[in-house]
Amino acid sequence: MQIRSIILYSKSGAKRVLDFRLGELNIVTGTSQTGKSALLDIVDYCLGRDEATLPISPIFNTVAWYAVILQLPDTRVLAARPAPSPKAKSVTNAMLEVGNDLGVPELSDLRINTDSAQLRQQIGRRIGIGDTRSEPAAGSLAAPLSANLGHAVLLCLQNQDEVASKRVLFHRQNERGIPEGLRATIPYFLGAIPEDQASLQQQLLRAKRALRSTENRLKAAQEANQGVESQLQSLLGEARVHGLLPDDSIGSSDRGMAIEALQQASSFRPTRRDGDEQQRRQELLLTEQSAALRRQLRSLAEERQLLNDLEAEAAGYSGAVARGMSRLSALNLVPEAVPGEHSCPLCGNELAEPDPTVTDMHATLEVLRGQLDNVQTVQPRREQALREIEQTATRLREQLRGIEGALSIIAEQRSEQAGLLGQAEAQAYTRGRISAYLGQISTTTDSGHLQRLEADVAVAQQLVQGLEEQLDSEAIDDQLTHSLAYVSGRMTSHARFLKLEHGDGLVRLNLKKLTIVTDTPEGITELLRIGSGKNHVGYHLATHLALHQHFVANSRPVPRFLMLDQPTQPYYPSDMAKARGRLEDITVDEDRVTVTSLFRLMHRVVTELSPDFQMIVSDHADLPHDWYQESVRYNWRDGEKLIPTAWLDSNPTP
Predict the structure, then answer these.
(1) How much is the pTM?
(2) Percentage of the chain lying above the pLDDT 70 cut
């Protein structure tokens, strides 16, 4: 895309048409205040810039519309916009028209049919700017950025405040948001980012979502398959608790039998009353069993106490008998021939009361021995009885704990189900869970289903991997490095041709800082640290020519023109020198050579790229060389200006 014409319309309908040669160097020279610098602002405005930067003066107030006719390879485009009012800060209205034989329209033919955003989008598509929306990094608050014609134009314009700046390398770089846009879009315009990056990013996003969904389904199926048996047994127990299965039904470790039992439970349709009555009967039965067990335990406790009491009494009796036997054992000392029962066995005197005979005491001793033997014989049987009682009590207590546990479960279930409408609702809920799970395991536990899910995951992973490879950041970085190396080589060559300070080193474009760096003996030096505006102009020119050489060589979607405003301003310091623009007005011979070299470099690059590149330069210089004079398209001196002074007469302004 190149500029065929720039058109100004007066409010009275008069036209000022400036035609430019395609694929050539076009120089607009002249004195100050002739409107040369406004050409760049007009092009910027007509190509969609909303901010009103056009001059405010009586002569410019006579303009009603601004327009440019752009030449594309297969057609022409008219981009026209109404002149902003003096108080307007921004304008969005625009007109866009496309045609192969498009000529300069009349003022009456101009009409608003679009806005600046659509104008940029439509022209951008026609020059090949694709869907290049770049997604911000995760966690970033920045909005997605799409490259458009506005970003491309930033690489095609250099006004007089920028072309000699050591801080600003690109057009409008010092404005808010522009540096971020340049860093994001220059890699695309250099060819490092795929044309369909936004589409690929959206496809990758959808593919990752599909992969996560498939992986989740596979994981759920695998977990379901691993825990089928335990879940089946849990559901069987729940079904029995809620009366969906008989109380005497038992679980089976066989999956088929368990599923069959659950299918039976899921089809069970008990009434609400039957379910309540069955639960009450079950609870009543368990309560009665608990009471019976408690009675048996109390009876066993009484028997145990009785045996313990008998044990204590037997121990006391045995002690008494042992003591009696100990006393009677003294009979062994009495002689066999003793006095009668009426005489004392020691002295033989007559007793008032007769004593028992030795025979009688022996008889008593024998009786005591027999009783003691009887007590000792009963002791083992009593201990055996105590052991049996303890064993029985232990067994009954275990049964009682089981029954009380069941009653506790019933109580907990009743509490949990208190919010339900009744047992019928609880059964319906359980039947629903059983039916849902049976429907799930009918597919998720099937080996064929698992294999299909695994295959789906593999396919989704391959798709994600393929898209990631196309959007591989390392590949993009490699391509960007390659493109910047090409540009760097051209920049270095141009810097050496212009004999710029530090131009003998490798000159490079630093995208991160949006500046120029070059190698020096002291290390890497940025443009900010290189002195004089003359060097700044040279490095700006070298950089932008190198970029456009890359754009043309690689058919990148960037307009095929470069507009420079006042590139020789550091060489014409006085108003007299600016008015004449001659080489002899430059006092230093070296500066004359440099000014000539600047335009010679422009002419050479445009010629090399012809017919695919155009330059429009507004400047004071009016060099005597034939090739320069052939490139002069307009020479505004001796009263000639961008806007004819006659417009003031036909367009009076207050």
Answers:
(1) 0.62
(2) 77
